[in-house]
Amino acid sequence: MSEISTNFTERTIEYEQLLLDFKVLLKNNNLKFTIQREVILECLYNSDEHLTPESLHNILQNKYPDLKIGIATVYRTLSLLEDSKIVTSLSFGAQGKKYELGAKDHHDHLICTECGDITEFVDDQIEKKQHQIADKLGFKMLDHSMQIYGICQSCQQK
Amino acid sequence: MSEISTNFTERTIEYEQLLLDFKVLLKNNNLKFTIQREVILECLYNSDEHLTPESLHNILQNKYPDLKIGIATVYRTLSLLEDSKIVTSLSFGAQGKKYELGAKDHHDHLICTECGDITEFVDDQIEKKQHQIADKLGFKMLDHSMQIYGICQSCQQK
DNA sequence: TCTTTTTTTGAAATATATTATCATTATCGC
DNA sequence: GCGATAATGATAATATATTTCAAAAAAAGA
What is the dihedral of CA B77, B81, B83, B88, to 10 degrees? Predict the structure, then answer.
């Protein structure tokens, strides 16, 4: 039995729900709920940024050094979460794939073509407009994605 | 002097313009116009699909075997074209980056998840809104892409 | 045209990212 | 707790991308 405490900084209702959904999903597929899978989900939940497998691995190594979590486990878990539509992977510009929890509200992305940084935003008017356009063209809208490319504030100052 | 003929299947006005722009760009940056750079641009122009560096390399090896074009040259040229905003790289789902020519008009797409049909549209209000959002967040907007996924009219009738 | 200067090239080496293998360990139903 | 099964970390194997460098090609000048 592990002595590791997950020591969550936040345990919101929303997170509890997400965790429960994850457990149900695992059970339905004869997969096991492990401490590694839990801390990866928790880390994604508590992070505001889009994480690469590498950065996620670093964070986890610092936060839970006794777990000695392997990079392979991070990759495997991210694939599992992506297949299960719990996280979404993005890959814009230069540096590799980035993952984000997909359970939150729908949002679009501003992507810096210089540093690869990704900022999220939501705009109700655009959401509405998209529905209008789909309707007008006799299209049954299921999902959408939008990216704005450009140069972020800090890169402009360089 | 090379004996290779580029043997273009199509040489539209649009392509000639693109090629000219490319030549001007090269000259302005003290770069040289090479047969390799030309066939890569031509191949991207004549392809309907999004190409990976790998697939582009294969196509070029088959089409111009005597050129013996190296994979490094493909990567280098794609980076150059991307930096110059002539092509855009995308990365959907699993493996690696894909490139497409980005010189055309803004591409907003309605994509049918049933039949794969793609309809283009432009909406001024959305374009404006995007600029407003970028401005508000101190972001210098260069480009954008938007996709709406759903079911098209004819697939709904089936 | 020929010569000089500079850039580009292909091949190979290197670096980085991702996936597979496998012996060991953990989970979970009983 | 026990046994069946799945997951783990370490590391090997692949896949993907970039760098190096001598030779070749392109542009500029005469």
Answer: -120
Kindly give the pairing relationship between strand B118-121 and strand A118-121: unpaired
Q: Tell me, what DSSP letter sits at residue B53? A: H
Q: Look at residues A102, A127, A145 and tell me which one is the last residue of a structural domain.
A: A102
User: Are B18 and B95 part of one and the same domain?
Assistant: yes
pLDDT in tens, B54-113: 999 999 999 999 999 999 999 999 999 988 888 877 654 445 566 766 644 456 777 665
Nearest chain B Cα distance for residue A122, angstroms? 9
B35 touches strand D (CB under 7 A): yes
Q: What domain count does chain A have?
A: 2
Give residue-wise pLDDT tens across range A29-60.
999 999 999 999 999 999 877 888 999 999 99
The domain in which residue B71 lies consists of: 13-101
Interface test with chain B among A97, A146, A154, by most B beta carbons within 10 Å: A146
Coil, helix or strand at residue A118: strand
Q: Is B89 a member of any domain? A: yes
**Angle of helix B35-46 relative to helix B53-63, nearest 10 degrees?**
110
Residues A132 and A61 in one domain: no
Q: Do B48 and B74 belong to one domain?
A: yes
* Residue B2 within a domain: no
Residue A120 has pLDDT above 70, yes or no: yes
Those residues of chain B whose CB sits closer than 8 Å to some CB in chain A are 89, 91, 93, 97, 110, 112-113, 119, 121, 123, 125-126, 129-130, 133-134, 137-153, 156
Inter-chain touch A130–B148, beta carbons under 8 Å:
yes
